[in-house]
Amino acid sequence: RVLAGGVAHDFNNLLVAIIGNLEPALDEHRARVAALERTAEELRRGLLPRVARWLLAIVLCALLAGVAGALYLGTVIEERVRQTPFGGGRDTFTPHLLVTSEPSGALVAIDGRAAGLTPLLSPASPVARRHLVRVEAAGHKLLERELEVTRAAGAHLHAVLEPR
């Protein structure tokens, strides 16, 4: 019994020495963790509003770019309408083909003849009612449609070209 009590006492002394040396290391570790948590919280408070503002700015820029693109397309079409002669009177109105595409700048051929790049406003033949329109762009599949042109309204083709 005395021997067991002595071994237990020695073992207890060893544990006290080990735990006594571990406590300062644990306290230092806890202090580092607390400092890192404070830094993370400061970063979160400072960065989240900035990130939100940047995301909002990016979304607004994308929306404005879309509006600017639509305004540009409208300006191009309006300018081409102004440049195209419509004839002398109401009865001599020439129907037109309007061809737009995604992506813009695609090559357009009407009835086998090169007509230009999209967006394209082209006078249609007053004789032919149907026109074969081909739209093609590099890296995209060819799109071919037959359009019926009405004397009063002309025709519009919006070609969404699929990538190859």
In short, what is this structure?
50% of the residues lie in helices and 24% in strands.
Q: Explain this structure to me?
A:
The chain is 50% helix and 24% strand. It contains one helix and seven strands; from the N terminus they run αβββββββ. The chain has one helix spanning 2-83; strands at 96-102, 107-110, 113-117, 120-123, 130-136, 143-148, 155-160. The strands form two sheets. It has a four-stranded antiparallel beta sheet, with no helix packed on it.
Order of helices and strands: HEEEEEEE
Main sheet summary: 4 strands, antiparallel
Adjacency order of strands in the biggest sheet = 3-2-5-6
Q: Please state the structural category.
A: alpha+beta
Radius of gyration: 38 Å
Question: Secondary structure elements and their pairing?
Answer:
Blueprint: H1 2-83, E1 96-102, E2 107-110, E3 113-117, E4 120-123, E5 130-136, E6 143-148, E7 155-160
Parallel strand pairs: 1-7
Antiparallel strand pairs: 1-4, 2-3, 2-5, 5-6
Characteristic key phrases:
single chain; 164 residues; four-stranded antiparallel beta sheet; 1 helix
